[in-house]
């Protein structure tokens, strides 16, 4: 955890330009240390790549943890295949982990790596196109055998044929060096070779002056039942560090100072989107004074939420791994009927299976959180890749008129706040709420300021406790669909409360009494009332970031984003402004209902561009609702946008306005 004790310096135009993600990691100072040159950088992007069995995700995670403890701002992008164990040495089996860290505020995991660690030929081939000329490539030469080269699709050895001449290549026999370092442990060559990722981690930790104590403590904890393996991995890690210190091939190491002015004061930790969302759900239940119930069926990339929440029984959390998606949401809806904060987690294919039960929750008007960690589709699609293509499904993917609030977090840490907001809406308005995260947010990490309890919203609810309606004959009764005139929410009655017996089910209810009704006029009234309830949800107005607007010199182009596009879009907007152009930005969290001022905001600009990781779903909604000429900029390649690509698109739009 990181403790900030001083407030950040006031940021002005100069500071914004200084922190814009427009420059490569340029050296700003050079010193001499221990006989080797030490260069100071403002930011670095590192990518670890290898077979899915090479431990690249663990290696990247450990480097990230040490970077967070050092005090840098950071953003990560894990990228791994869907196969449990793809064929070794093949392109489909390559797993990578990219980390961007800096001494200032950053927003994305970086467009291109400054350093690529390639554990085999396939890792090199799969990632080389992203590596700019002049970048460093650390290659595990032990794996560059004729057979491995052929399997990766190489006709000649790239280490010898000149194809890497534009890069700074460091050939390192990682396996051989690791096996040599672990001789005293009596391990087989195969077992010793498995620690080569720790050797690579030690080398990179030396190159960038990362702390080491946390990794050593982690390894001792991870292998507590096998202390010999723990010490072997620590020895490999230290050997990598010492190799960097002593070899002549690495004449320079680098320093990236802590981001002392990037964060408000507080206690920080590194957090992924799924972890932040889990913590947000626990916090929401505690603030509401309700038990938390998760009914879920495992599905990538949402399963981590089930895993995490299962660890928090001490906070009144109950988790149920159901036999299928329908059972998961059915159990969560039943828990909501019983007075719990009901949650179900899934991805796009699971939302399709849950659609009828979501419609049932709309009809029952019970609070329920449906968390969709979006992935590439359709059908099974790309389980480990990201996409934003479930928006229209979230809006309309149910039979009949079944409106559901939709909100979307912007960053991994924002998943915590979004979970609280979703719970607020569900509890206040007695409605299911769809929260749209995605694989990029779920697996990516960034620093998160741990809030104080007093900063969290009060979500306490009042259950019905007695009759709420008087019949014509003077009899006092409980009407389950008699509404709060402000929110249009119906009362929430806990089963077993004396005198509050009421009918519940999917057949249309009579207004007020909740009796089954087939009356056409009543159905029309109930449909319109449920829609009015959603339309009336209290969401804040949308604010545009337009520096010149206050002086009447605002931009003509507005970039409208939602969800995980926030980081790349904001980074691109910074680049465009640093180049001297005027550009405005607004980012939606609430998509249903839209903020009340969205139409007015959109019509204030000559051009509106909507970047999305789909084929233009938000743009479709905006064009239909507000009749504005919102233009899409889209991609559906399973990866987040690159800031450079977006900046180019925005500059083109400005030039051709």
Automatic annotation (TrEMBL):
Key words, A-Z: Oxidoreductase
| InterPro entries membership | 2-oxoacid/accept_OxRdtase_asu, PFOR_II, Pyruvate:ferred/Flavod_OxRd, Pyrv/ketoisovalerate_OxRed_cat, Pyrv_Fd/Flavodoxin_OxRdtase_N, Pyrv_flavodox_OxRed_cen, THDP-binding, Transketo_C/PFOR_II
Top-level taxon in the UniProt lineage:
Bacteria
Where the record annotates domain Pyruvate/ketoisovalerate oxidoreductase catalytic, the positions are 53-240
Q: Which residues form the Pyruvate flavodoxin/ferredoxin oxidoreductase pyrimidine binding domain?
A: 291-505
Domain (Pyruvate:ferredoxin oxidoreductase core) spans 555-624
Ranges where the record places region Disordered: 1-36
Composition-biased stretches, type Low complexity, lie in: 1-32
The name this protein goes by in its record:
Oxidoreductase
- What is the source species? Streptomyces asoensis
